[in-house]
Amino acid sequence: MGFYPVNPAEGVYVIGAPMFQRVEINVGREKTFTIQARYLTDDNHYIQAATLQEEPLTRGYLRHYEIMEGGTLILEMGPQPNYLHWTDIEARPPSTSDTTDE
Q: Is 22 within 8 Å of 34 (Cβ atoms)?
């Protein structure tokens, strides 16, 4: 689908390259979460940009509650990696191994 759980205890899903152009997930309460992979082909399998609920997604992960709210994740695909996309530390998923300064 394009994402997988990396930290189930916190409900964090890392976004990866999808295998389908469109997937709809019935999340209950008459809501659907849709993943669209625009321009996905055998040659275009790198994420170039993403939007969640029509807003730019500036991180490489989703939270469980975002999926359960329903809506749409759009992944723009291309033939080359976008090395500028999701490279900031803030774009990385949270981890139980993260350290904080106290």
A: yes
Q: Which of 102, 98, 72, 101 minimizes the C-alpha distance to 10?
A: 98
Strands 22-28, 12-15: pairing kind: unpaired
Q: What is the mean pLDDT of the chain?
A: 90
Which tens digits make up the pLDDT trace of 19-41?
Answer: 999 999 999 999 999 999 999 99
Structural domain boundaries, residue 50: 3-91
Q: pTM (2 decimals)?
A: 0.87
Sign (positive or negative) of CA dihedral 19, 13, 24, 85: negative
CATH, residue 47: 3.30.2080.10
User: Helix, strand, or coil here: 21?
Assistant: coil
